[in-house]
Amino acid sequence: MALATATADTWGIAGSTFLPAYLLIAVTVGAVGVCTRRALAEPGATRPIDDITTHPHDVAYLASGSELAIWSALCAMHLRGTLTAGDGTVRAVGRLDPGSDDLEKAIHAAAGSPVGHRRLKFHRSVQPALVAIEQRLVAAGFLLSDDRRRRIRRVGYWLLGVAALGLLRVLADVAEARPVGLLVTALLLVTATAALQIALTPRRSRRGNRALAALRDRHRALAPEREPDWQSHGPAGAALGIGLFGTEALTASAPGFAREIAPRMAAARETGISGLAVSGGGDGGGGGGGNRG
Question: Which of 38, 70, 151, 153 is most buried, with most CB under 10 Å away?
Fold first, then answer.
């Protein structure tokens, strides 16, 4: 009789005991997971933050991936007189200096005949330059490597294991006609948290986030609301402005060029709608095409 009483509860554990224990396990695993993800998103620094500005298109890639890096290069080339735009296409003109940025060289080679600016990042001569930028940022600790991102993603499976335990308990309680309302609620919360941790894998490191924040504060004069004169800042300054503040910096300071290269974006700016946003947080900067999450 005593044995029957002891095993009357599912798994021999009363629901009033299992639920608090389950929540404690979930909170503990979740907290350890958050700490682990933060540690994995902080690779060792290999270069000073200031060094990244020597390659302004790298800043754009760090902020929002390959598309913004292309915009940065196009703007710099326009100011250097090595590229023209019209009807949504771009075309290379003149000759580049021997010391020109590799991305600009690749775009110049790809745009020998008119080409849509959105197609440039897929061009076979441009892709290696974008890959080189990503590798440079990963090596410097500003972007996370694919391996490190996989390790961060796997942390989410820890909570998924906790969710599996909760699901087994729910099924066992249902089989014995026991109430499961509170446990189901806890299970849904744990499952949703695990799914978010798996899905939201940052592309930028925490150091990359700090670098962008510091550079935006340091170069506030390039912000679109200041309407900077790009002729005075030069091609490198204009490229850096786009990298730090997005394409709104382009439409604010060079509306004519923006209208020629992307009429819809310029029209959106004139009606108060943002163009290409600069992603923030740890999920931006996707390799090869943006966010990378």
Answer: 70
